[in-house]
Amino acid sequence: MGKALVVGCGGVASVAVHKMVQNSEVFEEVCIASRTKSKCDALKAKLDGGKTKITTAQVDANNVDELVALIEKEKPDVVVNLALPYQDLTIMEACLATKTHYLDTANYEPEDTAKFEYKWQWAYRERFKEAGITALLGSGFDPGVTGVFSAYALKHHFDEIEYIDILDCNAGDHGYPFATNFNPEINIREVSAKGSYWENGRWIETEPMEIKRVYNFPEIGEREMYLLHHEELESLALNIPGIKRIRFFMTFSQSYLTHLKCLENVGMTSIEPIEFEGKQIVPLQFLKAVLPDPASLGPRTKGKTNIGCIFKGKKDGKENTYYLYNVCDHEACYKEVGSQAVAYTTGVPAMIGAMMLMTGTWNKPGVYNIEEFDPDPFMEALNKWGLPWKEDFNPALVDDEPIKVLEPELIK
Ligand code: NDP
Fold it and tell me: How far apart are CA 72 and CA 98, in angstroms?
């Protein structure tokens, strides 16, 4: 069928490329390009021998000219951006210059301000449309599958969705006192920021981790979860007509939160550069260097993730509730592709999104969030490619749960 150029070669890219190789009918060729070429070569060495032809390249994705030269040489059908959010705009520029479809899993964030918004990427809408190419924004799990779930719920189970709660539970245990499941810098910037949710047409801001709920997750059990701002809230608030409130909750253990608070208190999570022994360093980047590499968590992580959306609204004039979720097992993911479930649940939808664009199943020139496409073929592919979903037509709602505090875990 065609060729994908994957930019970045971290945890998520590794899963996406594994899945592309499994899906060799669609992905006949894959070029893996990243800042550190040796990582691309190591991944190629692991996966060579199948039907997919794999090549590798070195690229600085902050540099548009380098990207354009690479795309012109490789001539992919789609560029799959699995580098960091800082590179979104340069990669979009290069796609525009070469008229190549674009996909990512995280929205643009300027490196010097921990603030992510879609406005920078949405500004490319007209130019992508005129060039006849599609940019598919946010094709991971959250954002990604959560948007597909929302479009699917609206298409099949509601006339109007009024409330969405997105619940992201990672009950995996990697045995370290503190580690992050994906890029530590991006992860810590996200969770140490103020929270916010959308209600009645406006954003309501909260202090970081101010709102806590307990939810009894299917196949996992009770976990404490905290309200965060999350990027799909911004697009879903616009794309789900009549929505009254949309919130995002993520689970954290007490151990994780206590370590994070301590690191924050001593200044280690700051993104302001400081002078250290005659050199400028960013404390958060230094912290990233001393924390375990998320890719190394795979063999140690046990337990499951459960990520999904609870919808409440109207169908045929009656109140309706519906919960769509996926449960993923860290050890099963590791066995299959050598990565833990957080990378797996992001890499699989990245492969599926790329397949939607390459096969022309989703063909809509412009810049779109994932919920703006027909969810059905994506939902079918989730079942086929390792992220089967489950539904509950009578779920417990978040606000119905008593607000209570679980016994804090001992700090390991
Ligand atoms: P990693 O840090 O493991 O990997 C990032 C990769 O990008 C590395 O290979 C890195 O290269 C490469 N890279 C960084 N800067 C450049 C550059 N200037 N030029 C070329 N390559 C570069 O991150 P993850 O795999 O954990 O995350 C990848 C993306 O997925 C992130 O944007 C993250 O926010 C997103 N994500 C989305 C989720 C979702 O559900 N939507 C969930 C989890 C993550 P090097 O090896 O040299 O450092």
Answer: 7
Which tens digit of pLDDT belongs to each residue from 134-183? 999 999 999 999 999 999 999 999 999 999 999 999 999 999 999 998 88
- Cβ distance 304 to 330 under 8 Å? yes
Phi and psi, residue 369, nearest 5°: -85, 160
Q: Which residues pair with 306 in a beta bridge?
A: 169, 327
34 within 8 A of 366, measured Cβ to Cβ: no
User: Is 70 exceeded by the pLDDT of residue 133?
Assistant: yes
Of 240, 234, 246, which Cα lies nearest the Cα of 158? 240
99 CB burial (10 A radius; 0-12, 13-18, 19+): exposed
Is residue 6 within 8 A of residue 19, CB to CB? The reply is no
Question: Which value, to the nearest 10 degrees, does the dihedral of the CA atoms of residues 37, 41, 43, 47 take?
Answer: 150
Phi, psi of 77 (to 5 degrees): -80, -30
Does residue 307's CB lie within 6 angstroms of at least one atom of ligand 1?
no
17 lines ligand 1 (CB under 6 A): no
Q: Which atom of ligand 1 is nearest to the CA of 84?
A: 32
Give the torsion through C-alpha atoms of 272, 273, 275, 280, to 10 deg: 180
- The phi and psi torsions of 206 (rounded to 5 degrees) equal -125, 165
Radius of gyration of the chain (CA): 21
Sequence-distant contacts of 265-269: CB under 8 A, at least 24 apart: 269/188, 269/192
What pLDDT, in 10s, does the model give residues 357-379?
Answer: 999 999 999 999 999 999 999 99
pTM for the predicted model, two decimal places = 0.93
Best residue among 68, 71, 84 to mutate for probing ligand 1, ranked by most atoms within 8 Å of CB: 84
Tell me 327's DSSP state: E
Residue 83: closest CA among 151, 152, 8, 140: 8
